[in-house]
Design brief:
Mean pLDDT of chain A: 74
Shape of chain A: rod-shaped
Largest interface: A-B, 74 and 80 residues
CATH superfamily of the largest domain in chain A: Transferase(Phosphotransferase) domain 1
CATH topology of the largest domain in chain A: Transferase(Phosphotransferase), domain 1
CATH superfamily of chain B: PPM-type phosphatase domain
CATH architecture of the largest domain in chain A: Orthogonal Bundle
Helix content of chain B: 25-40%
Number of helices of chain A: 30
Radius of gyration of chain A: 62 Å
Strand order of the largest sheet of chain A: 6-3-2-15-1-14
Number of strands of chain B: 12
Distance between the termini of chain A: 81 Å
Oligomer: heterodimer
Helix content of chain A: 25-40%
Number of domains of chain A: 5
Shape of chain B: globular
Structural class of chain A: alpha+beta
Strand content of chain A: 5-15%
Low-confidence stretches of chain B: 259-274
Low-confidence stretches of chain A: 535-555, 598-602, 717-725, 836-1001
């Protein structure tokens, strides 16, 4: 937006600049009049009110007319004036009154008529001349009456009078009337070139012209705005150039003849030693001395009444003319609106004599255009970036600078047309600022971008990033207009470049479905189809097999380690699962990948890798029919992978939904199988950590597999310092939520959550608006009563679920096998656990006597159990047992060698009140765990922090103890902490869990 | 010309003292008043990729939809948001789609993700969007407040009152995020509008700062240094001095003050500085 706005500003600025430059070049009146105003202003500033000493005026003003009589006056009076002035001895006398016709005196005409008549009568002898010489009388009367001749006489006697001539207008071009020699003697020959030219001429009567010293034209030419600013010193008539009245007077004053004039067109007119610079149109700017009467002037009447001394006129240029109102022409000039014509010539003469000129310097045009261009650039580029106020300030400063420069130059006689750049500046400011004001006021237009547009944007971004599949997905959502066709066609080319011919083909197919005529889509799609099928791709039209090229695409498969990647099966939070093939034994495997990277504590990739392999190795040792087998682990380019059993089945997620519930028996059966599998794994010291329906697979053959053992551990070991993205932790145990170390009982909690979900279709902890709510519920809230969530469940199930979901690990099933046994009892209709009192959850967890199916490796477990444990502890605990005693080691003996049964702390709440005194937990008929520890714990949820206990690390537990965790808190030193474990005597080597003797109900 | 007073902004990113690579990224577009900080995660440099995509996508989309002739507001979006909020939400969601799809398309980038905090501001107000635990702080007349809620497990726990802030700072689960860009096909973005006043300072930072330097100290630094560049430099130095276990990225933006000698100074720099 901003860029475009700037562009618009610049364009507007440019247009304005062009307009101003055009006006300048073609002198359009609009801007020229502005320049003239500026000129007039400067002219007024420049006026010099001291009258020039060389020139005086004799004005026939209103007073003179009032005293002497009405105008026109007889020429005899003028003759008197000429005589009078001449007597004072002026250098030259100019009379700015044109006598182009002989005087029409009625008296003279009458006398002439009488004289004619008299002469006729004499001639015809009708009368006789006697005594008086009438002829003489007539002639003297004629002379007395003939002012012209009087004036002629005065002119002749004066000899230095300059008279005006006038060009009354008319079409130029026709043949000019012949001009008497007396007139043309004042002119010079015209050269080539453009001049002010006139088509008609009016000059004084011939006798006057002959008697005058010279003639000068009194034409004044105004500018387009009607103001007189410039004098035209030479006007062309016919082939002659006539000097102006002022020039002629100056010449006379200097004693020059026309041949002394030197005219350089467009440059200057030289009068002897004085050079008058001219502009390109051969004009001369008049520097007016000031408003009216800044030239010394005396009224005609005063001269006639001898009120002015002769010294006033001595050696001066004296100009006589009319100023009386109504009789003289008034001109509009820069200095005043009504400037009498009489005073124009004196100003010009003063300019010439004093060499005060206003000229256009030779660099004026360049400077003016430069200034216009500069201002143009300013309004185009800088003004739009300024704030309104600063824009105004800068513009004013610039304009002032321009005008000041203009005035300075004017004072020094140089005229620069500064109005143009100033006008440009002003107009630019107004336009740009008002535009930006309007635009800002309006604000930017908010346009709703449709889903189509956003999809297209996303698609293009995907394509840019090389994600062509995703791009295609987005483009498919857009209507297939011409633009989209082009885009899709390009996408197909991208696919083709990546040799994904079938995808390229389907993109083209998408176009073809709408517009089969678009480019070559149909033909190309067919060709791509062939290529994608691995068919020959090359010579079209029956090329031989030998001459064809096999496309490499699709023949070499990517590999990961030694596995060939066939396709992607799915993806999880940490990586992708691929279908892989082990080419050596042609076994299909599932390959799970994950990224290895630096740990939070700066652990090196190497040690992380080691840990990964350690975890994978321990998970790989699991060999259980219900656990997904891990075949191999490896890494390539920081991608670690685990190759595992490929299963044909699906997970249990869909059975956890209300409309997809399994029959209760099936659900219980599956969960019990998982519980057994967990029992086995826990016995191996391996905690799953991420038990959830998604990790339990139901195969096509109806068997159950637990997947991803140890994966959670591996992934958590490779989490970054920044963090691990976590899914919704619905299956987390309270101790996991608290960030404590976990053992197998955490898995059993998660399994109980899964059980809840698989039987009811609801999760026990649903969370709320955020994950925090969920976590809080897991840690603190009692789970809902299962029988309240779904009717028709076996009543005994409730107690099992309650026990499974106990907040305190010690109150839960301690082993998977216990859990499984309890579930199987429920299936048989038994009540494995006595129903707890209704409210607050944690059910009293005393196991009911129920046969527990032995895990497959029962034998090894039992053998380990039966192995008497050496008692390295300094304080063997009291044995209240019927079988081998396994003493609880004191925590300080954490480094003890030999099998140690780590025991989870067992809060008093494990058994309800009556059991308190006994302090013994009996597990199964033969296994008794007496008073595991009867530490007095406050009631209520109290997940003890691991730091309360000394923990003991055991690489691989050597037994099937009750605390199967890898890292298990060891109870605080407790003298009475004994445990009695009996080997079961049953032939099928099952462990039986005996109900506590004092279990209520 | 009534242009917006430019926001003075400075930003920097630093790998810290422990980690070799820098998975953070940040972007500033003073023209749009858009600032982004992102903290990537994922292996084999894909953390950098994710944070880079988020910064670039947000800036690119902002330039297309805000910087153009017309301001485009995407259809839909969360109800109740201002147009600018909807735009910012869309930019962040687009970045999410980019990262998610890239993770799917290229195995080496699988599972990558990033946090992001982005702000579009002018002299009078700002719109903030964030996902993850990168934060936006507002410093106003000496008081520093955190305007974003961390989308991390401990953040949620603190919010629920399950643990105290002090416990959270020691928790082993600090690094578990509950939301991130690139984790899923769609992401919930927190978007909020806030007014701004002259002299306000907006600070965007990754957890490399917030885990190392306590808020009070951050406030003290801002109070003593008014120049955004100096604030950024000092805060990075302090994070490093405190251990610098994670990458640190900080963007500081100062809301321009009104009038005063600053105006004259600005005029001078406008006239002669260009």
């Amino acid at each position: 937006m901003k860029k475009k706005g700037r562009l618009l500003d610049a364009a507007m600025g440019f247009a304005l600049t062009l307009f101003v430059a055009g006006s300048y070049y073609y002198r359009l009146p609009l801007l020229e009049s502005v320049e003239f105003k500026a000129y007039d202003l400067r002219a007024k500033l420049r006026q010099d009110l001291n009258p020039p000493p060389e020139i005086v005026l004799v004005a026939i003003d209103d007073d003179s007319i009032a005293q002497i009589g009405r105008w026109p006056w007889p020429r005899s009076r003028m003759a008197d004036a000429i005589d009078k002035l001449q007597a004072a001895g002026p250098k030259v006398l100019g009379i700015n009154i044109l006598y182009s016709e002989p005087e029409q005196n009625q008296g003279l005409l009458e006398i002439r008529r009488l004289e004619e008549k008299y002469k006729e009568l004499i001639g015809t002898k009708k009368i006789a001349q006697k005594g008086v010489d009438f002829a003489l009388e007539f002639s003297s009367s004629t002379v007395a009456m003939d002012s012209d001749s009087k004036m002629l006489a005065s002119l002749r006697s004066a000899g230095d009078v300059v008279l005006p001539l006038f060009f009354p207008g008319g079409t130029v071009g026709g043949k000019a009337d012949a001009v008497p020699a007396a007139v043309s003697s004042s002119s010079i020959k015209a050269g080539p070139g453009e001049m002010y030219e006139e088509g008609k001429i009016a000059y004084p009567i011939l006798a006057f012209s002959e008697a005058a010293l010279g003639l000068g034209h009194v034409n004044l030419y105004v500018e387009s705005d009607g103001v007189l600013r410039r004098e035209v010193p030479l006007v062309k008539y016919g082939e002659e150039l006539y000097p102006s009245f002022a020039v002629r007077l100056t010449m006379a004053y200097l004693g020059l003849k026309p041949e002394d004039l030197k005219f350089e067109p467009g440059e200057a007119l030289t009068l002897g030693k004085l050079r008058v610079p001219l502009d390109s149109e051969n004009r001369m700017s008049i520097l007016f001395n000031g408003p009216q009467e800044t030239i010394r002037v005396v009224p005609f009447a005063s001269v006639m009444s001898d009120k002015v001394g002769p010294e006033f006129f001595k050696d001066k240029i004296v100009i006589l003319g009319l100023t009386a109102s109504g009789l003289s022409t008034q001109w509009n000039t820069p200095v005043t609106q009504s400037f009498s014509a009489l005073e124009v010539a004196p100003n010009v003469i003063a300019n010439i004599l004093h060499q005060k000129f206003l000229t256009r310097p030779s660099w004026a045009d360049r400077a003016e255009l430069g200034a216009i261009a500069l201002m143009g650039l300013f309004i185009m580029a800088i003004l739009p970036r300024l704030k309104a106020l600063w824009g105004l300030v800068v513009s004013i400063v610039l304009a002032a600078a321009l005008f000041a420069a203009g005035i300075y130059l004017f004072m020094n006689g140089q005229w620069l047309q500064v109005a143009y750049p100033m006008v440009l500046l002003l107009a630019g400011y107004l336009v740009i600022i008002s535009k930006s004001f309007l635009v800002t006021e309006k604000g930017k237009e908010l346009v709703e971008a449709s889903a189509i547009e956003t999809n297209k944007m996303l698609g293009l971004s995907f394509q840019e990033q090389g994600m062509f599949d995703s791009a295609f997905e987005k483009f498919r959502l857009c209507p297939l207009d011409d633009n989209m066709k082009d885009t899709l066609y390009n996408l197909s080319l991208d696919f083709e470049r990546k040799r994904q011919f079938s995808k390229a083909g389907s993109v083209l197919g998408h176009i073809a479905a709408k517009d089969p005529k678009y480019k070559d889509v149909v033909a190309k799609a067919a060709k791509l189809k062939e290529a994608s099928e691995g068919a020959v791709f090359g010579g079209i039209g029956g090329a031989k097999k030998e001459g064809t090229i096999m496309m490499a695409g699709g023949t070499t498969k990517p590999t990961l380690g030694r596995y060939e990647i066939e396709k992607e099966l799915g993806r999880g939070a940490m990586g992708v699962v691929y279908l892989g093939r082990d080419p050596k034994i042609n076994r299909m495997v599932a390959i799970k990948t994950m990224m290895l990277e630096e740990g939070a504590d700066g652990e090196s990739t190497k040690s992380i890798k080691e840990r990964f392999f350690r975890e994978a190795e321990s998970a790989g040792t699991l060999n259980h029919p219900n656990i997904v087998r891990i075949f191999d682990a490896g890494d390539e380019n920081d991608v670690a992978y685990i190759a595992m059993e490929l299963l044909d089945g699906h997970d249990l997620v869909k059975y956890g939904q209300k409309d997809g519930l399994l029959p209760v028996e099936k659900a219980l059966e599956y969960v019990s199988i998982v519980a057994d599998a967990l029992d086995y794994a826990h016995a191996q010291g391996i905690v799953h950590r991420d038990i959830k329906p998604a990790n339990i697979m139901l195969l096509k053959d109806g068997s159950i597999r637990v997947a991803d053992f140890g994966i959670a551990r591996i992934t958590s070991s490779s989490k970054t310092a920044t963090g691990t993205v976590m899914g919704t932790p619905s299956y987390m145990s309270p101790e996991q939520v608290a960030g404590k170390k976990v053992d197998g009982r955490s898995d059993l909690f998660s399994l109980a959550v899964a059980l809840f979900e698989l039987t009811t279709g609801e999760k026990p902890f649903k969370g709320g608006d955020g994950i925090g709510t969920l976590l809080f519920q897991i840690a603190n809230d009692p789970h809902p009563d299962i029988s309240g969530v779904k009717a028709g469940l076996p009543p005994a199930l409730r107690a099992v679920v309650d026990k499974g979901l106990a907040k305190n690990p010690d109150e839960r099933f301690q082993r998977g096998s216990e859990f499984a046994a309890a579930l199987r009892a429920v299936m048989k209709g038994e009540t494995p656990i006595a129903a707890s009192k209704p409210a607050p959850a944690p059910a009293p967890a005393t196991p009911a006597p129920a046969p527990v199916p032995a895990p497959v490796n029962e034998a090894s477990i039992t053998s380990e159990i039966t192995r008497p444990v050496p008692a390295p502890a300094p304080k063997p605990v009291r044995a209240d047992v019927t079988g081998p005693i396994i003493p609880i080691t004191a925590p300080k003996r954490a480094d003890a060698t030999g099998p140690i049964i780590p025991l989870a702390p067992s809060p008093a709440k494990t058994a309800t009140a009556p059991a308190q005194s006994e302090k013994t937990v009996l597990i199964g008929p033969d296994i008794t765990i007496p008073g595991l520890n009867d530490m007095a714990k406050p009631a209520g949820p109290m997940p003890a922090s691991p730091s309360d206990f000394t923990t003991m690390e055991i690489e691989r537990p050597q037994h099937g103890g009750v605390g199967p965790a890898l890292k298990t808190p060891v109870p605080a030193p407790d003298e009475n902490g004994t445990m009695r474990i009996e080997r079961t005597q049953s032939p099928d080597a099952t462990i039986r869990i005996k109900p506590h003797p004092q279990e209520p109900a | 010309m009534k242009t917006k007073d430019r926001v003075e902004v400075a930003g920097a990113t630093d790998p810290g003292c422990v980690r070799k690579n820098n998975e953070d990224n940040f972007a500033v577009d003073p023209e749009l008043g858009l600032f982004v900080v992102a903290d990537g995660m994922g292996g084999h440099n894909s953390g950098e990729v994710a944070s880079d995509i988020s910064c670039k996508t947000i800036v690119e989309y902002a330039r297309k939809m805000i910087g153009g002739e017309k301001t485009l507001v995407p259809e839909g979006g969360t109800a109740g948001l201002t147009p600018r909020g909807r735009q910012l939400e869309f930019f962040v969601k687009s970045a999410n789609a980019m990262i998610y799809e890239k993770g799917r398309a290229f195995p080496k980038d699988a599972g990558m993700g990033t946090t992001v905090v982005a702000v579009i501001m002018d002299a009078k107000s700002m719109t903030v969007a964030h996902v993850g635990d990168s934060r936006l702080y507002l410093w106003r007349r000496g008081a520093l407040s955190q305007l974003t809620e961390d989308h991390s497990l401990v953040g949620e726990q603190v919010k629920r009152g399950q643990i105290t802030a002090d416990e959270a700072s020691r928790s082993s689960m600090q690094n578990i995020l509950t939301r991130a860009l690139g984790a899923d096909k769609d992401v919930q973005v927190d978007v909020a509008d806030h007014p701004l006043f002259p002299g306000d300072l907006v600070l965007l930072a990754t957890d490399g700062l917030s885990k190392m330097v306590i808020d009070a100290e951050v406030a003290a630094v801002i109070a003593s240094e008014q120049d955004p560049q100096k604030i950024v430099d000092v805060l990075i130095a302090k994070s490093r001095a405190a251990g610098g276990v994670d990458n640190i990225s900080i963007v500081a933006a100062l809301v321009p003050g009104s009038g005063g000698s600053g105006g004259v100074k600005k005029l001078v720099s406008r006239l002669f500085g260009r």
